[in-house]
Amino acid sequence: MAGREFRDEQLPETRFEHVDLTGSRFDRVDLTRSSFSMVDLADVDIRDTAFSRVRMRGVELMDVDISGELLRVTVNGIDIGPLVEAELDRRHPERAKLRPADPAGYREAWAVLTGLWDGTLERARALEARDPALLHESVDGEWSFTETLRHLAFATSSWLGRAIQGNPSPWDPLELPWDTMPDTPGVPRDRAARPTLDQALELRHRRQGEVAAYLEGLTQAELDSATTPVDAPGWPRPNAYPVKECLDILLNEEWWHRQYAERDLAALESRPRGDGSGS
């Protein structure tokens, strides 16, 4: 029997009992206050999903891969968030410099990130020499390397160009927001674009230079201030944001997306030569 489709329907308080939903897709579904008992979630793929105030009892977690922000996540009575953060700091000592409190600290943090990305780009260049199509390859449904560069340019334009510097529409047509961002007038989202690495890097380096130039003149008073809301469609929304928060978002985006890129480059590098799909 073919699967049924429920779209734009309101089904609160619905009860599913002895129901087979194998292979079903839930997209923009509100499951707030739902209850799951004796549910098989094996091989489930969950992305961009909030788990705030979730209680799990009697669960079995085996071969589970979790990537996300862990705040007050208690497992068997132990808050694992600080343990994970401490282990990340041990594995990546540079993280200590990515929590700055003054302008000099932000300049140092940006220099650290730039240096780390230089090494990642060397790996990407080696893959490009092997097969340029690999840099457009998605690994396990994640962004390709060039899409990652395009997204980081978008993040810089959004949090520096728009939020801090007040440009209502700072984006280049090649820039890429996150996948689930609603279509917004003036915000580009061309997922079909296939720029060369040099084309993606030209935009990427331009945005990196804008951050470096801004940080060079950053004062403590400006760091301690808030942005002026931009009254125009786009991202972030027209609010006043602490400048420090905007800059911390940029550091966080840069560090994590490099981790993802390194992980996926390693997967691509491990493939036998001639095994690129070219997708």
Automatic annotation (TrEMBL):
InterPro entries for the chain: 5peptide_repeat (IPR001646), DinB-like (IPR024775), DinB/YfiT-like (IPR034660)
Superkingdom field: Bacteria
Boundaries of every DinB-like domain copy: 116-260
Protein name per its UniProtKB record: DinB family protein
Species assigned in the record: Knoellia koreensis
